[in-house]
TrEMBL record:
Cited function: Troponin I is the inhibitory subunit of troponin, the thin filament regulatory complex which confers calcium-sensitivity to striated muscle actomyosin ATPase activity.
Entry GO CC: troponin complex
SUPFAM superfamilies: Troponin coil-coiled subunits (SSF90250)
Keywords recorded for this protein, A-Z: Acetylation, Actin-binding, Coiled coil, Muscle protein
Record's protein name: Troponin I, fast skeletal muscle
The family this protein is said to belong to: Belongs to the troponin I family.
Coiled-coil segments: 14-102
Gene3D superfamilies in the cross-refs: 1.20.5.350, 6.10.250.180
One Pfam family cited in the UniProt record for this chain: Troponin
Organism: Eubucco bourcierii
Cited InterPro entries: Troponin, Troponin_I, Troponin_sf
């Protein structure tokens, strides 16, 4: 039991020592980043000296606009490169996944849900959905359909074809021709 206590005490001591080392390393990295930031700003952003005359101010503004345009172009180029590499990474990871050929299909559960409930789930609760399909149908008058039916019967070409088909139809055509 003494060995266990000693081992756990040693483990705790090593753990605390590692945490202390990690904390000092993090502080060093933060200080190094700050120094690097200051150096970068000193190099790329010289202190601003405002000239006295209007002509010099206009020239300064023109220079600043030119620098801003150059930086924007660089930023755009780097964003495009980043998007391109991200797309390539996605494509390669998809190819890798396809090459492995091990697809885990999740178990599907049967869900009983009415059409109204499904539409409400898809569209959200703020949309009121009604699946009354008959409400949207067009009203048809019976008189119109009867007139159309009469017209169809008169000009129905299928009846004429059926009457003329076969030997009886040819016989009728022959008799009609005489």
């Amino acid at each position: 039991q003494k060995k266990r206590r000693a081992a756990t005490a040693r483990r705790q001591h090593l753990k605390s020592a590692m945490l202390q080392l990690a904390a000092t390393e993090i502080e060093k990295e933060a200080a190094a980043k700050e120094v690097e930031k200051q150096n970068y700003l000193a190099e790329h952003c010289p202190p601003l000296s405002l000239p006295g005359s209007m002509q010099e101010l206009q020239e300064l503004c023109k220079k600043l606009h030119a620098k801003i345009e150059a930086v924007d172009e660089e930023r755009y180029d780097t964003e495009v490169k980043l998007q391109k590499t991200n797309k390539e990474l996605e494509d390669l990871s998809q190819k890798l996944f396809d090459l492995r050929g091990k697809f885990k299909r999740p178990p599907l559960r049967r869900v009983r849900m009415s059409a109204d409930a499904m539409l409400r789930a898809l569209l959200g609760s703020k949309h009121k959905v009604c699946m009354d399909l008959r409400a949207n149908l067009k009203q048809v008058k019976k008189e119109d359909t009867e007139k159309e039916k009469d017209l169809r019967d008169v000009g129905d070409w299928r009846k004429n074809i059926e009457e003329k088909s076969g030997m009886e139809g040819r016989k009728k055509m022959f008799e009609a021709g005489e």
